[in-house]
């Protein structure tokens, strides 16, 4: 009888938890304004426990580092210029997106500049970086300053893979070559047969120049040319897919999944929204792994995401359209939301194992639901922006698809952490 009473007590407690979570969600998402204090607290907690991977960009001045950041993130030059913040006297960090970064770019001052001693920056970058991208212009066949620094790094980290991006290819084009070589030929080992000699010669000379580097880690070469539309070269992001492939080969950081949405989606708003959705989802997952009392912060993170997405679409949440959005998701949504987030509290009743498993479940549920809400919100906001009626079936399907994508994202994130734990 005592055990039954204990079980009934636990069931009642968990029903209260579920009901409380549903109420918090409705209050947070239905209110026109996000509780700034709660959101800040939640994001601070996430930042303490979650660190975005850091990509170290190393190269001479004007080598194309900013163009790489712009192409990988989809940010404008102005946004990038405003976003870098000093972390030493001569190195800067760029968080993307700023509030919930899914990647950080660490940029050193241009090597080889008069009076610049890079030793302090090198020490900082080696300590923080997860991936090193060396950026050299195709015409710089003997970038000695870059080689000197790279030798030092590889002596201390002989197993580090290094991505070497050969940039500004069009500077080496001769008068007879009017544009990029298409299709992109550098996947093939015999690429030099498809490339004019005026271009292949400096590219091969660079590879020979770096051939004597110490260490066993691979050198991964990727020729790219990121230009502006007014430069007259198509495509403007020549070799971007190859750069993504090379980054994924060099480091299991999941950067492409963090920064790029489904290639079949052509909507510029959805593409811009994706990294924000990922960032807030990872933050929600991190907060969701904290003790149950902190789950009150998860709706604040989700509400913060919805506000951010509305801004990207040029819309704003009101009490009316927030209620409409939640209503279109269906009556089963709130119940499922509360149940998923509260499952962890039940699991935690199991001694020892429950403490760990409960945290994983809380993180997965919080992050996946946040991701799904973000994807569904994009469908809703897009229709609002166009002045069209919202199809409840399409909205719920976007939520269901997003829930599965969110689960996969959180699983990969957890797998990335496990080797270092």
Jot down its keywords:
7-stranded mixed sheet, 421 residues, alpha/beta, two-stranded antiparallel ribbon, Rossmann fold, single chain, 2 domains
Write a concise synopsis of the structure shown:
The chain has 421 residues and is α/β, with parallel strands linked by helices.
Would you give an account of this structure?
- By secondary structure, the protein is α/β, with parallel strands linked by helices.
- It has two domains: 9-49 and 260-420, no CATH class; 54-253, P-loop containing nucleotide triphosphate hydrolases (Rossmann fold, 3-Layer(aba) Sandwich).
- It is 56% helix and 10% strand.
- It contains 15 helices and nine strands.
- The strands form two sheets. The protein has a seven-stranded mixed sheet with strand order 2-3-4-1-5-6-7, sandwiched between helices. Strands 8-9 form a two-stranded antiparallel sheet.
- Helix 7 (197-209) links the parallel strand 6 (162-167) and strand 7 (219-223).
- Helix 10 packs across helix 15 (392-417) and helix 12 crosses helix 13.
- The protein is globular and about 70 Å long.
- Residues 346-361 have low confidence and may be disordered.
**pLDDT < 50 runs, ≥5 residues:** 346-361
Determine the number of helices (DSSP H or I, runs of at least 4 residues).
Answer: 15
Residue fraction in strands: 5-15%
| Biggest beta-sheet profile | 7 strands, mixed
Record the strand order, biggest sheet.
2-3-4-1-5-6-7
Number of strands: 9
Give the radius of gyration. Answer: 25 Å
Overall, the morphology is globular
Mean pLDDT: 81
How many domains, in number, for the residues? Answer: 2
List the secondary-structure elements in sequence, H or E.
Answer: HHEHHEEEHEHEHEEEHHHHHHHH
The helicity comes to 55-70%
| Class based on secondary structure composition and strand pairing | alpha/beta
Distance between the termini: 43 Å
């Amino acid at each position: 009888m005592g055990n039954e009473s204990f079980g009934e007590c636990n069931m009642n407690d968990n029903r209260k938890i579920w009901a409380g979570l549903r109420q918090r969600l409705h209050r947070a998402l239905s209110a026109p304004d996000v509780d700034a204090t709660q959101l800040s607290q939640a994001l601070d907690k996430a930042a303490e426990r979650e660190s975005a991977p850091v990509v170290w960009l190393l190269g001479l001045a004007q080598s194309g580092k900013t163009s790489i950041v712009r192409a990988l993130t989809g940010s404008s030059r102005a946004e990038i210029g405003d976003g870098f913040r000093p972390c030493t006297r001569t190195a800067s960090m760029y968080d993307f997106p700023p509030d919930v970064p899914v990647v950080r770019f660490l940029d050193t001052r241009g090597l080889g500049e008069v009076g610049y001693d890079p030793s302090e920056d090198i020490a900082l970058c080696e300590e923080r970086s997860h991936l090193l991208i060396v950026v050299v212009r195709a015409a710089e066949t003997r970038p000695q300053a870059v080689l000197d620094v790279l030798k030092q790094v590889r002596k201390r980290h002989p197993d580090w893979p290094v991505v070497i991006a050969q940039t500004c290819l069009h500077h080496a084009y001769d008068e007879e070559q009017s544009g990029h070589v298409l299709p992109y030929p550098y996947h093939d080992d015999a690429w030099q047969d498809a490339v004019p000699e005026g271009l292949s010669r400096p590219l091969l000379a660079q590879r020979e120049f770096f051939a004597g580097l110490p260490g066993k880690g691979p050198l991964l070469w990727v020729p790219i040319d990121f230009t502006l539309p007014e430069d007259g070269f198509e495509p403007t992001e020549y070799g971007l897919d190859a750069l993504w492939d090379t980054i994924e080969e060099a480091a299991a950081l999941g950067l492409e999944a963090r920064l790029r949405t489904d290639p079949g989606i052509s909507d510029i708003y959805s593409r811009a929204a994706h990294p924000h959705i990922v960032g807030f989802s990872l933050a929600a997952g991190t907060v969701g792994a904290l003790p149950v009392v902190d789950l009150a912060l998860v709706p604040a993170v989700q509400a913060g995401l919805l506000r951010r997405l509305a801004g990207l679409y040029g819309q704003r949440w009101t009490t009316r359209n927030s209620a409409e959005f939640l209503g279109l998701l269906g009556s089963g949504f709130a119940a499922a939301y509360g149940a998923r987030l509260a499952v962890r509290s039940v699991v935690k009743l199991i001694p020892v194992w429950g403490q760990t498993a409960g945290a994983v479940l809380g993180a997965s549920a919080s992050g996946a639901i946040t991701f799904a809400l973000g994807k569904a919100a994009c469908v809703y906001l897009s229709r609002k922006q166009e002045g069209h009626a919202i199809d409840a079936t399409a909205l719920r399907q976007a939520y269901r698809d997003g829930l599965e994508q969110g689960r996969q994202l959180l699983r990969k994130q957890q797998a990335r952490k496990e080797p270092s734990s």
